[in-house]
Amino acid sequence: MATGRDDFVIAIRSAFLKKKDKQKFSLLTLVFLSIFVIVLSNFNFKAIKFIKLGINEVIYRSSFIASIPENKIKELFSEIKSHMELHESQQQEIVKIENSEQLKLQNEFLTAENKKLRELIDESINSEEVFAKVLLDKDSPYLKSVVLNKGTKDKVKIGMAVIDDIYLVGQIIEVNYSNSRALLLSDLNSKIPSVLEPDDIQAVVSGTGNNFGIIEHTQLDYKEGFENKEIVVYTSGLGGIFKPGIPIGKIDQSSEGKINFFSDFTQLNYIKIVSYNFGEEK
Amino acid sequence: MSSLNKSTFFKILLSYLPLIMLFFSVFNEFDLNYLKLDYFAFNFVHLLIFFWTLRNPDQLGYLAIFFAGIINDVVIGIPIGISSFCYLILCSVTAYIRNITLSPNFMKDWISLLFTILLINSIQVIILDLIFLIKVDYTNYLINSGFTFLFYPIFFLIFNFLNERISYQTND
Questions:
Q1: Three-state DSSP class for residue A96
Q2: pTM of the predicted model, to two decimals?
Q3: What are the tens digits of pLDDT across the range B2-50?
Q4: Are A261 and A249 in contact (CB under 8 A)?
Q5: CB contact at 8 A, B68 and B88
Q6: Of the N and C termini of chain A, which has fewer Cβ atoms inside 10 Å?
Q7: Half-sphere exposure of B65 (CA within 13 A, CB side)
Q8: How many helices (H) and strands (E) in chain B?
């Protein structure tokens, strides 16, 4: 029994401490070093911050270059898929075009009316936009985020909204000198104050880690009014980060309470980083 | 072909291939996600490190694995050091297996891999969820572990072939 325990101890000691010919460091040293790095990355000292920024800058750029072949394969897959679905999508587009002219006129009237009403209550929303390219789009099982090619030098700040076309796709969570990281709405850690229309119900849209969102922190019987209706989810503007009315997604009858995001997060290429100033005349 | 085998460049390239694959995959986070298959993900880096540190540790240095972990953390956006720690735990297990094993056996390696990836994914989830308060999807981790385990035989054949070629070239 004692011999067995000795063997175990010898094997463990040998595994952690013994260096092979070509190994410059023992495993134990590196394990301790990685624990040290984890602890250190938790502190927000200026020196650590700068080192982190430097590492991020170099690795994001290198990763962008290394991802070129994979991105090409992705593009190829997406092109093949769009060719296969060409007829079906064309039929859908025809219906959309027919409806769009009416919607455009209605939209113009509502926008003008909305502007007038905001002027009456002395409320104005100004926005500053920065256009950015998606550098890295890693559909990681751990964190749903994208790396963008704009950073502090372009006045990007943490918390700014990330918009694809007119749809909200996420929020800036990390800013480096020339790039930044945006957390997508689909991430488990994403929580956006929103409003469910047409019933005007306040809620929080939460990511699930999959390509749909769910509704949280709302009235218990909110589903009762949903029968036979298509629910559109917009930002509510509560919290003062996003302006109210940015479309997020919709809940239809087939989606069983899940929010289908308007934007396809796997196809993001160019996006807008937007900051909103409330109640300031520009 | 034979002249190609004997060229120094080819020899060097072959001997550095595991290292190149490691860094290429951490920069890419290669897991065939562009196939857009729901509930399909596997960790190529875990397979790569497990095989090479078990069968031919001279081809994959611990320091390189440590740096690959740092890069992986930055690319996927989790706190720096976690992947390095997990990769080095993987190396510790393989070093232990190497020390207690006289003759390598594929089945034993495969079963050990299952326990090891469950261990390191559990460590990663504990660190992210309980220490850094970052929400993670447990299902995704389980699926990832499952597919990583299932894919091992395929990658074992590929890596084994490569390992034989490297050994042949080195002894040549």
A1: helix
A2: 0.74
A3: 555 557 777 788 888 888 888 888 887 655 555 556 667 788 889 999 9
A4: yes
A5: no
A6: N
A7: 32
A8: 7, 0
Place of tokens 């175990």: A8
Q: Which residues of B touch A38 (CB under 8 A)?
A: 79-82, 85, 127
Mean pLDDT over the full length of chain B:
83
User: Which contiguous run of DSSP H or E holds residue A253?
Assistant: none
CATH number belonging to domain A127-278: 2.40.10.340
**Interface predicted TM-score (ipTM):** 0.80
Residue A197's identity, in one-letter code, is E
Cα–Cα distance between A78 and A17 in angstroms, integer?
49
Q: Is A66 on the interface with B (CB under 8 A)?
A: yes
A15 touches chain B (CB under 8 A): yes
Q: What is the dihedral of CA A242, A196, A170, A275, to 10 degrees?
A: -10
Q: Read off φ and ψ for residue B159, nearest 5 degrees.
A: -65, -35
Contact A37 B70 (CB under 8 A): yes
User: Residue ranges per domain, chain A?
Assistant: 24-66, 74-123, 127-278
d(CA A182, CA A146): 5
Residue A256 one-letter amino acid: E
